[in-house]
Amino acid sequence: MTRTGLVVAALALAGCGGKDRPAPAAPISNTVPAPEPTPPPPDEEREDPPLEPVAATQLDPAVVAAFEQQVLSTATGVPECDAYLRGVLALVKCDKLPGSAQEAMLEGGNAMLDAFGTARFQDPQLAQQVSEGCGGALDALRQAAPALGCTPP
Prior knowledge:
The protein is mainly alpha-helical and 153 residues long. It is built from 5 helices and no strands. The chain has helices spanning 3-15, 61-73, 79-92, 99-118, 124-147.
């Protein structure tokens, strides 16, 4: 038997056959019960601090103008996708949209333009799916725009 085997066997035997040993003590808990939560005061007693207006950061007008030029001068080959890109442009130009949302829309629009720059839809079924996807996305933009305070595309 190896040395490791002997050590394991000795430890196993040491744990067995101990009738003379006292029963193990109950585990000791060192946790303190949580205090009862304090209920909030009624609405008439609560004083909320006034909300600070959030500064709207807008995109650089030159960046927006470059995107607009690209959208208006690029045909994707799918009319619904061209309309969707014009809708994205409308939201990017909406001054009520926060700058971070404008930037996200702009990045998405640029990615779509890049993808359509290399895409050619030879398969009519794929072209139909892309058309339906862009049409659905345009419908979503049209529904979201009023809620954002922007004119629907």
